């Protein structure tokens, strides 16, 4: 986990962790009475900008729609909540009578708190704040990008993970034979995000000595894309299993070809 950038003591160091229920709301005080609800509005915009800059520079060859998908993955509430919990932000929250409300909506609130902290880092340091936040967030997001969207090449482009609309068909031809089945199953309900729908598909193999073996998973704007990305994921993350199955299928086909040739030869030799 990257080192958390510190915010100097003052209103911006406290505000990301102050709920309005514990604050004496004063519309005339823009900073002294700051809460995370105010800061998260700005932090949300900073996160979008920083994520866009990162994706545009590291994955310049991807279509704009695909870049938007990656950005959505980086800035969605689940991701930000995970970061908040990793830094134990929940232990720093201050609430008054609204404490029960915090417990009920902890996921969304922790995402808001993370956005507020990003804004606090930037606002508290007008000279270097944005740069510090960008470096920190890039380090935080790097494992997600590497794990889900492919390693980054020296020239700034991903070394793989260009969308392959024929991935399911190619995998089918490569390893599926008699009594072998590939199952594409929705792993979670469709999500409607700010920008688009998201579908989630997991791919399982039955056959070649495996029973419902998870090969890969994918997500996309529709089920077809999610399924193809699951197949792409399988061919990278479980290449050993795929190669083993392909060798077995090839050997089986060769055996059948030889048996058919021998049968034809024998029938031709009969008087």
UniProtKB/TrEMBL annotation:
Residue ranges occupied by any RNase III domain in the UniProt entry: 17-126
Coiled-coil segments on the chain, per record: none
Origin: domain of life: Eukaryota
GO CC annotation: nucleoplasm
Annotated segments matching region Disordered: 1-26
Keyword terms of this UniProt record: Endonuclease, Hydrolase, Nuclease, RNA-binding
Gene Ontology process terms (BP): rRNA processing; termination of RNA polymerase II transcription; U4 snRNA 3'-end processing
Pfam family of the protein (one): dsrm
Residue ranges occupied by any DRBM domain in the UniProt entry: 166-240
GO terms, molecular function: ribonuclease III activity; RNA binding
CDD domains: RIBOc (cd00593)
InterPro entries: dsRBD_dom, RNase_III_dom, RNase_III_sf
Database matches in PANTHER family: RIBONUCLEASE 3, RIBONUCLEASE III
Protein name as catalogued: RNase III domain-containing protein
Species the sequence originates in: Aureobasidium pullulans EXF-150
